[in-house]
Amino acid sequence: MKSPTIYTVTILIVLSLIQICNGKIILISPQEGIEVAISNAIEGDTLQFQPGIYTGVLNKNITINTNGLYITSISGAENTIIDLENNGRAFNIEGNVDSTCLIEGLTFRNGNVNRVSGGAISTLSATPRLKNCIFENNYADQAGAIRGCFYSVENCIFSDNRVATHGGAMTLYGGCSTILKNCLFVNNDAIEGSAVSCIQSSPIFINCTFVKNKGLSAVNLFSSAKPIFENCILAFNEEYAFSYMTFSGDDYNNPSFFCTNISENQYDWDSEISHHLGQNGNISLDPLFCDIENNDFSISSDSPCALANNECGVLIGCFYVQCGAPFQCGDINGDGLMALDDVAYLSAFVFCEGEYMYPDNAGDLNNDDFINIVDVMLLYRYVVNDITPTKCLN
Q1: pLDDT tens readout for residues 280-320
Q2: Per residue in 8-50, pLDDT tens?
């Protein structure tokens, strides 16, 4: 009989969560609005958005200065939309708010803060976390969707955001070491840095995909920026992958690259970064997206970004091999097998902010549109009894 270690660990984690989750749950509806709920929340509370489209003055320009809030949705970002109606941003996050504040599962649409920065979210002396959010069609003079510092930005989509200057999707400011993981930047627009502008910051990009962004460059580095790109794709952007600016007295910009593919832009590994090509697993090859015209950025089985086809032995970019091929339900890490490591992977995802899965419904073992402890228990049972799941519907 196989060891029940994963099962035991899962139970212990759940018991621990029950002990520490002592805040109250505040339900928010489109009719009642966000402002009152957030102003009445205290540290440890969960603010849970019901499905719908949130509009009007009670759902914008809201200040968050309470630490330890979990702001989330019942039905995911696709079904929970804050529509800012091209007038204002959603959240101003200020003060001592740190990584204990998590915003998850919301869509931020049509923010507009002309002549200032941060079309959807702005932080000031705060470092919250963002996860499983969508930012689309937001506008600002700088930082079309988000600006400031964040502890982490994970599994988020930034599409069709735009600015008058730089930082089409986001601008990360001085001292930031934001971790950006499994994020997609597509069709954002700026003069420079149509996806990201880094100003005296050192963010870490892990398994991110930058594609079809407009303007002079997808990423703009300002004054001593030292970002790290690990397992990322920058491809099919309009002109340069990177552009640079250094002010007098500042150190030079110094990006680092590991197992990253920069290709199919008008200019790829330019003279500032060309020495990284061929080092540390960095490549310049067509990523072979499934259907770039229709924004399907999963990759074909012979893509150099597939974990079996590059010297790093890792997935490059934020989407697995798919191209319309059926996936194996329960194959959480996308290696073609269903085994105990998939149970560990899914447990980490559910309980410990672990790696994301692509396709994301590979872990929905009971096909209820939620990935939670029930799916972990089902997957464990399937693995130890060698049963193939029949759900996880496409």
Answers
A1: 999 999 999 999 999 999 999 999 999 899 999 999 999 98
A2: 444 444 434 443 445 799 999 999 889 999 999 999 999 999 9
Q: Helix, strand, or coil here: 240?
A: strand
User: Tell me, what amino acid is at 213?
Assistant: N
pLDDT tens profile 203-227 = 999 999 999 999 999 999 998 899 9
The overall average pLDDT reported for the chain is 88
- Name, in order, each residue with C-beta under 8 angstroms of 57's C-beta and a sequence gap of 6 or more: none
Q: Report whether 359 contacts 327 (CB < 8 A).
A: yes
Report the 10 Å Cβ neighbour count for 89.
Answer: 26
Provide, for the chain, the percentages of residues in helix, strand and coil under a 3-state DSSP scheme, each rounded to the nearest 5. Answer: 15, 30, 55
Q: Give the CA distances from residue 153 to residues 46, 150, 248, in Å, rounded to whole numbers and listed in that order.
A: 19, 7, 31
CB atoms closer than 10 angstroms to residue 1:
4
pLDDT for res 265: 97
Biggest CA–CA distance in the chain, Å, is: 67
Q: In sequence order, what are the residues at sequence separation of 6 or more whose Cβ sits closer than 8 angstroms to the Cβ of residue 1?
A: 384
Nearest in space to 338 (alpha carbons), one of 365, 307, 304: 365
Please give the Cα distance from 181 to 357 (Å, whole number): 12
Q: Quick one: tokens of 159?
A: 């599409």
Name residues whose C-beta falls within 8 Å of residue 233's C-beta, 6 or more positions apart in sequence.
208, 209, 210, 211, 260, 261, 262, 287, 305, 316, 317, 318
